[in-house]
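Running this now, will post back.
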Amino acid sequence: MTNSPTFEQQLALNQYWRQIGGTVMLPGTNRAADRFARASFYVNAIPKTPDPVQTIASAFSVIRNVSVPFGITTPDQPNISSTRWRTVADHKRKLYFFESVLTPNVFWVDLARLDFSAKSGKVMKLDLGPNQTHVYAGMANAQFKEVAPFRFLGI
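Update: finished.
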């Protein structure tokens, strides 16, 4: 997912880069259009496998390749900012994987093991800590704590 340009423009740029071929040259700037072109090439180049572990690893490798490095700011281009979080969803197994640039591990949440029922009425939160620096590794379901519901302004 990128901020700009519009999706239609990204598709046109993607078609241009497809004609050149990703093994010859890919755009390498931090601009969203260049990151989109790289992601498009790599997502179609990674091996397609039924192994969910390899699939998750491949998806993360593409996302890391198109992430804006931590700490980069471009004041005259506010749409370019550091990537803080990378996420991958495994829809079949109902797992949601997270990787923060500030911590060294991938962790995941098993959605099938969370209680989303209205009957329980529980609101759960994973405390990310100051500046999102709490370290989690592996399945993080047990780390969720019950909290008061989020209150929207004006409600």
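The CA atoms of residues 43 and 82 lie 21 Å apart. More later if anyone needs it.
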